[in-house]
Design goal:
Number of helices: 6
Number of strands: 8
Shape: globular
Low-confidence stretches: none
Helix content: 10-25%
Largest sheet: 8 strands, antiparallel, barrel
Distance between the termini: 14 Å
Strand order of the largest sheet: 1-3-2-8-5-7-6-4
Order of helices and strands: HEHEEHHEEHEEHE
Radius of gyration: 16 Å
Strand content: 25-35%
Mean pLDDT: 90
Length: about 200
């Protein structure tokens, strides 16, 4: 993933919950079909899945996709996946809840996301994001800072009742070891996530 991150110009961040009765199906579909399918789109470089640690008001799942640039989401290949979902994708869509979708331009990226745990913050202003980033740059090799695009189109199939607003204009994600997250001040104010498995794409663009 080193090479992929080096060419990553944009990130798609997706938060969501899912109705409890299909949660096991959701995780099997998302890991084995949905994310690998997205990774067949030219310019979609990598995909990572996470589950929230502990209780909280934020959505339980977070998916991060690295892209060559945000125009990948306007490509014919990506639009085809949106307009022609697989049978399982069509089944899962109505069960998704609290969906928030950020399309972001990468501003800083260190190393690659090999960490099993992730701390994620969102900020309204760049100076606040940069200040928090500075607290970690000397102690981590897994860091992503990205600015949210205000021009990104919403998901065409998403209903108002499924949406959830994650507020902010800047995204900061820091990879941390599990023991560091246990410290009370290690990631104050962050959304905390543990990595989930995902099957590789059938082929890479």
């Amino acid at each position: 993933m080193n090479d992929d991150l080096a060419g990553t110009g944009a990130v798609l961040a997706l938060w969501n919950d899912v109705t409890p009765e299909v949660e096991a199906e959701y995780n099997a579909w998302h890991a084995n079909e949905h994310v690998p399918e997205r990774l067949t789109v030219p310019g979609m470089l990598w995909g990572l899945r996470y589950r929230r640690l502990g209780d909280g008001a934020t959505p339980r799942y977070l998916t991060l996709y690295g892209m060559r640039d945000a125009q990948v989401l306007e490509s014919a290949a990506y639009r085809l996946l949106l307009s022609r979902p697989t049978p399982m994708s069509a089944r899962m869509r109505p069960h998704l809840r609290n969906v928030s979708r950020w399309v972001c331009e990468v501003r800083e990226a260190l190393g690659f996301f090999a960490s099993s745990h992730l701390a994620v913050w969102t900020f309204d202003a760049e100076d606040a994001a940069r200040l928090r980033e500075g607290e970690y740059t000397s102690s981590t090799t897994d860091l992503l800072l990205a600015q949210r695009s205000t021009a990104a189109a919403p998901l065409p199939w998403l209903t108002d009742g499924q949406a959830h607003a994650i507020e902010g204009s800047w995204l900061l994600a820091i990879g941390m070891p599990e023991e560091a997250l246990a410290a009370s001040e290690a990631a104050r104010g962050a959304m905390l996530y543990g990595a989930l498995p995902v099957r590789p794409a059938l082929h890479r663009p």
